[in-house]
Design goal:
alpha/beta; seven-stranded mixed β-sheet; globular; binds guanosine-5'-diphosphate
Length: 192
């Protein structure tokens, strides 16, 4: 599978025609700082297509990227990061509502949702809550346990088992945006 190009199309904060376009959507969701932007940038082999959610003044929108591959095209949909401690409570609540709107109420019908968590930390209560919401709506969920490079080799399988048990989910990929471990496995899952 080859990525031919990746470009930013637009950011939305509410209903928009792009949600109903005929191009399949793969949405990315995760706690702020978990490495969600790095995962997307790694997948498309670009350094800064997606800006980190901790970038000052980063627009808190739902961003659409058009990804052209040899197997067809896709939208990567980057949802705002949740739980960012540096934001006011009010702002955090607004972002939470925007994420929930996309997955629960909007016209979007994402083909898959990638929930990015921290491999070392494991699922936090926020992650468990988000997973529950996605599950309730019968989405196909791929959990990406990112920053696996921070775990010792010997601990990885044990931690993978633990994450699977805590989330009651079998589809978990150990991944590192830093070393690119798990990148191929994730790409294959995306286009399955
Ligand atoms: P976002 O807020 O979820 O979009 O997170 P970023 O992609 O901005 O990453 C947050 C921080 O984690 C940055 O300092 C990244 O360099 C770092 N990071 C992201 N992915 C990895 C990874 O796989 N391994 C390690 N060690 N650090 C990572």
């Amino acid at each position: 599978m080859k990525i031919k190009s990746a470009e930013f199309i637009k950011g939305i904060i509410g209903t928009d025609g792009i949600l109903k376009e005929d191009i399949p959507q793969v949405a990315f969701v995760g706690r702020s700082n978990v490495g969600k932007s790095s995962v997307i940038n790694s997948l498309v082999n670009r350094k800064d297509l997606v800006k980190s959610s901790s970038t000052p003044g980063k627009t808190q929108q739902i961003n659409f990227f058009l990804i052209q591959t040899d197997l067809g095209e896709l939208f990567f949909v980057d949802l705002p990061g949740y739980g960012f401690a540096k934001l006011s409570r009010e702002r955090r609540e607004k972002l939470r509502k925007l994420i929930l709107w996309y997955v629960e109420d909007s016209e979007a019908k994402p083909q898959k949702i990638i929930l990015v968590i921290d491999a070392k930390v494991g699922p936090t209560p926020f992650d468990v809550e988000m997973f529950g919401v996605l599950k309730k709506h019968n989405y196909e969920i791929i959990v990406v346990a990112n920053k696996v490079d921070k775990l010792k080799r010997n601990d990885r399988q044990k931690q993978l088992k633990k994450i699977k048990e805590e989330l009651w989910c079998d589809n978990v990929i150990l991944h590192s945006a830093k070393t690119k471990e798990g990148r191929e496995e994730l790409l294959l899952e995306l286009f399955k």
